[in-house]
Design a protein that fits this description.
This protein is of the alpha/beta class. The protein has five helices and eleven strands. Helices cover 28% and strands 22% of the residues. The strands form three sheets. Strands 3-2-1-6-9-10-11 form a seven-stranded mixed β-sheet. A two-stranded antiparallel ribbon has the order 4-5.
Length: 185
């Protein structure tokens, strides 16, 4: 990993962590509203949505609203070979924390449905849809292996930056949604 990427991750994690809980909650609700303005989300039958943890844009309310619209929800988990897989979301009571503190299915049922829209976290995004994550490459490999119609990154406005050092394997987003804007790439 390059020194500049490592430093950028540290800086952006600190920036996101510095947001107070009430602002994070309010901005996450605003982001959820922006998500429901996207025709690709409304038209999607199956969506892949990360389950938020720590200081990420909160997705619990988003997942509940999508379920209310009778959408099929798949959530990520990392398998024993360090690959991201999709599991059908069957309910909050079915989840337990993994070694990183992320909520994942207790007994994941791998889903191989066609996913119309994927909603993903990141530490930073650019207006051109470049994304930097936590450094394991799980989402980049996942997008390489799965045909996803629409990739949507969620971030707070403070996470939108001018430039991210990218590699040939880095996947870009089709949309980046913040509390104040929806960037169409």
């Amino acid at each position: 990993m390059s020194k500049s990427k490592r430093q950028l991750r540290q800086t952006m994690r600190a920036c996101r962590n510095s947001m107070d809980q009430e602002s994070r909650k309010t901005h996450s609700s605003q982001i959820t509203e922006q998500i429901f303005a996207l025709p690709e989300v409304l038209a999607a039958k199956t969506l892949f949505v990360y389950v938020s943890f720590r200081s990420e844009v909160q997705t619990h309310g988003l997942i509940n609203r999508l379920l209310g619209l009778k959408k099929d929800i798949c959530i990520p988990f990392i398998d024993s070979s360090d690959r991201m897989q999709t599991a059908r979301f069957v309910g909050w009571d079915d989840l337990a924390t993994d070694t990183f503190g992320v909520l994942v299915p207790r007994c994941p049922q791998i889903e191989k449905k066609k996913i119309q829209a994927a909603i993903v976290p990141g530490l930073a995004f650019t207006q051109q849809g470049a994304r930097i994550g936590y450094g394991k490459g799980h989402y980049d490999r996942f997008f390489e292996e799965c045909a996803i119609e629409t990739k949507i990154g969620l971030a707070f406005d403070s996470q939108i930056i001018e430039q991210i050092p990218t590699e040939s394997f880095d996947q870009t987003m089709d949309y980046v949604v913040t509390e104040a804007q929806t960037l169409i790439v």
